[in-house]
Amino acid sequence: MWPGLIDKAKEGGLDCIQTYVFWNMHEPKQGQYNFEGRFDLVKFVKIVQSKGLYVNLRIGPYINAEWNYGGIPYWVHDIPGITFRTDNEPFKKEMQRFTEKIVSMMKGENMYASQGGPIILQQIENEYQNVEAHFGESGHSYVEWAASMVVALQTGVPWTMCKQDDAPDNVIDTCNGMYCGDRETFTSNSTKEPKIWTENWTGWFQVFGGRRPQRPVEDIAYAVARFVAKKGTFVNYYMYHGGTNLGRSGGPFVTPSYDYDAPIDEYGIIRQPKWGHLRDLHKAVKLCSIAILFWKSHDKITLGPSQEAHVFRSRGGECAAFLSNMDPKSDVTISFFNLRYYLPAWSVSILPDCRTVIFNTAMVNSQTNLMKSITPYKKMSPSKILQNENVDGFEKWQIFEEHIGVLQENSFKASGLLEHISTTKDMTDYLWYTISINVDKDEPFLKSDKLPILGIVSQGYCVLVFINNILAGRAHGNVTTPRFKLEQPVYLHPGKNDIALLSMTVGLPNSGPLYERKVAGITEVTIQGFRDGARDLSKELWTYQVGLGGEKLELYTESGSKNVNWSFTSQPPSNQPMTWYKTRIHGPRGNEPVALDLSSMGKGQAWVNGEHIGRYWISYHSLRGNCSRKCDYRGRYNRHKCESNCGQPSQRLYHIPRSLLHPMGNVLVLFEETGGNPSKVALSRWSLRRICAHISERHHSSVNLSQKMETDLKILHTHTIPTLRLECPVGKMISFIMFVSFGNPQGECGHFIEGTCHSIESRVIAEKACLGQRECFLEVSSEAFGADPCVGTMKSLAIEAICS
Fold first, then answer.
1. Which residue out of 199, 308, 402, 672 is catalytically annotated?
2. Catalytic one of 27, 127, 516, 592
3. Domains identified in the chain and CATH numbers
4. pLDDT tens, residue by residue, 132-154
């Protein structure tokens, strides 16, 4: 996917691609490196270079990124005397060794700009100031050491530290956040250094049990324009493409989908209008580049109580201005250089000649894409599938029941309750705690309706309770409070009773001071209701097993699945816990992105052709209520401001990259922990459903541009008269106009209706310009539509079309 994603980023106006370096992926065992396949860092940098773009390499090695252990391999945790991210010699030794490894690789391939390569920036550490105070003087000395260590590597390219006010002068302090342009206190730690924004958050990550955060593009564009207006020189979007976290990666409760409401979505599809509006912003800023880059003067002019202008003038006489309205509620009309300008609330207008508004952050002149999930196949016999290779389908399911509790060859005993993470060492999510107890036949609860109560205290994250091989209870924490308690009535019979507790992690800690010392797993087990009082099993002798039997046998692989006898069934059992399901799936037609719809399942993990595509947790729904259909972009954004998907599973569709699929016979394996219905699992293709746009003539400016700038605008498809642009994906054309109205149409994409003012020529003109075209332009003016349908009324053009 890399080349196509980078092409879309470049088309969107980006000049530089930023990436983390994932230490735990590249060195899963000490001294054993992996730079193959999707871990081929050099290849990634070379592809970026081949597209004519630059690279910002954020080595870290600590990266956070909502990633297991913040990218630091678990084996580092077990080094004697280790403390992460402080003036600790064992940690610094490993950190320096890995950093030198990456720098040496880049130098060896001539990847640094000083060697003619694409890498223009690199980062050491990540948001360390968030934890520095905890370590006191050792924290500050660690910052000084890290800076001197990397500068000594002599790459010829600047190093940065994000969110690090006390960064030494030989590295650049950079900003992370949503409004680095409005952080008046943010300046680089030296006046000789550029003002850099490492992370402009386009949304937020998603967690199991959480809603879907979304950040309006008008707000993102506003923040970028404000930063540039204040002499900001580099803005990176985090994320521009969020993608999919394959495998067991991800911090606590973080979903495999790392979409981040990014301009390019998880599946690699351009998200409109976000991508298009930012593309137009980038074009507008670049039209100001001479004045911005070669400024002789930069003036801030007050235009009102919440309004101001930032004006750049170059030595050659070029002038560019940014007019800001910081009021989150009120639109205003202001006077600037003896001309009147309309400024919507919470917006910035860009004037590349200090006269003409060519872009306003609140006026979206980009189409909206409506995507849909096409599920053409639910269930079909293998014979019919083989008769028609164009049909997407599943073969019969096979099942294998996971053993409840420990297997003798994999078990060990220990007194008391072991800590989960240090026992499993991030090799698996699962740890079995098992014990047997005897119940006297005279116990009172055996002769009454009052059941004994099993009590469990866990530091996180989930637990399943099995009594005599029957699922008897379950409980879990959440992203803010992993710790939880369970009080569960249980059936016990006279004699021996087997208690098996399956403790589960959902990602590992990834942030905060001493996060490597955070714990998980069961800390207390009691049973209330016995004649002689509660039984505390916490310090008894327990039998343990790391991982599942099916994991050890690698049942999720083609070869490993042959290690057991699967049961064939045309109707797999539903609501059956601790079950492995296997089938073969046939790749959907076409080249659209593919997703696995697991909405009928409970909680578990999924593999395709041996590749782990992530954990699923369909049974964990987000809270209901307070989800708004339309988000007001005005005012400061926070991740709870614009949420969707209320009362729904946090993630039900799981991206399967096309490169993992064969045309036929792909092996799909699910491990279901709590019970689901695999017969309703389906493959979906993500396809563009409809394209829409709704543009107001409010964009119009009567001021004339210089001839050269008018030419530049035409080349960039930017117009002083507002122009509606529709564009289908490559290979598709506009085949039908669902709705079009020039006047005062109402509603939103997918729900447009005509207003009280409507030009009867709307459809004829739109069809003439757009049908049969991949891309078309329609001027939003009465002249373009033959006449003014309602004189004196502000008009707009709304259109909805189908691409096929």
1. 199
2. 127
3. 1-180 (3.20.20.80), 369-402+552-687 (2.60.120.260), 408-546 (2.60.120.260), 721-803 (2.60.120.740)
4. 999 999 999 999 999 999 999 99
